[in-house]
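A.,

Following up on our hallway conversation. Structure tokens first:
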């Protein structure tokens, strides 16, 4: 039964190749189309923080003075942890009206000033010691964290090799089940080969993915693992 099913898959591909689909959509030789996947759960060694500091002071100079003081505190926290102060990036400074409670946007009594920061922490052993006091700072209106790996490029390369090996194993099973031999790879993609995927109703993942778990407020001081995933699509010629 299993062999018959595999034969049917390959036979369908060959039949479609023969004329059931436009020539431009399919390879002009007997083939098998498979996908492969590989993943790894890795401990993060880089943490990133995006946060917004704000001041409700209606006087622009006083508001900016308050934000400068808070920014100095943030840099001091990094220095206390032995982290480079240069890893604090001031991304934007905004002064504008709050839009809430039906108050007209142009009401000068409802203005606020905010400063958006991006912090890169390259030594996650210092993570909890930095994040805990940041969360206790007043007027922190937004706070989010993400994690990654400094050797992500190397991991991606290794995952591609593993995903290709997985795809070839599947293709070899299909070929042998259909009484054929697997030939060389004639098409490889990190993302789905769309014409074929749509034609056969295949659904595969979107190439390389880094899955970052969502973090609740109580979890911000924890370093989360990073799940790295790589998918490939491959077309093999059949002998």
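Then the amino acids I'd put at each of the 239 positions:
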């Amino acid at each position: 039964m299993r062999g018959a099913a595999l034969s049917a898959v390959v036979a369908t591909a060959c039949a479609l190749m023969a004329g059931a689909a436009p020539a431009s959509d399919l390879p002009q030789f007997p083939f098998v189309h498979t996908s492969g996947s590989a993943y790894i759960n890795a401990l993060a060694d880089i943490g990133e923080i995006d946060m917004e500091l704000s001041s409700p002071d209606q006087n622009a100079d006083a508001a900016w003075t308050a934000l400068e003081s808070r920014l100095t505190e943030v840099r001091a926290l990094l220095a206390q942890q032995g982290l480079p102060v240069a890893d604090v990036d001031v991304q934007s400074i905004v002064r504008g009206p709050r839009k809430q409670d039906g108050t007209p946007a142009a009401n000068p009594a409802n203005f606020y000033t905010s400063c958006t920061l991006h912090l890169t922490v390259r030594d996650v052993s210092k993570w909890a010691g930095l994040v805990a006091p940041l969360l206790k700072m007043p007027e922190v209106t937004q706070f989010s964290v993400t994690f990654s790996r400094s050797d992500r490029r190397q991991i991606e390369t290794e995952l591609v090799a593993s995903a290709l090996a997985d795809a070839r194993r599947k293709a070899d099973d299909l070929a042998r089940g259909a009484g054929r031999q697997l030939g060389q790879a004639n098409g490889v993609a990190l993302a789905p080969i769309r014409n074929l995927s749509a034609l056969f109703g295949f659904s595969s993942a979107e190439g390389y993915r880094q899955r970052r778990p969502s973090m609740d407020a109580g979890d911000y001081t924890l370093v989360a693992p990073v799940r790295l995933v790589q998918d490939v699509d491959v077309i093999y010629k059949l002998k």
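The domain at 2-41+157-238 is CATH 3.30.110 (Translation Initiation Factor IF3). Curious whether your intuition agrees with the design.

B.
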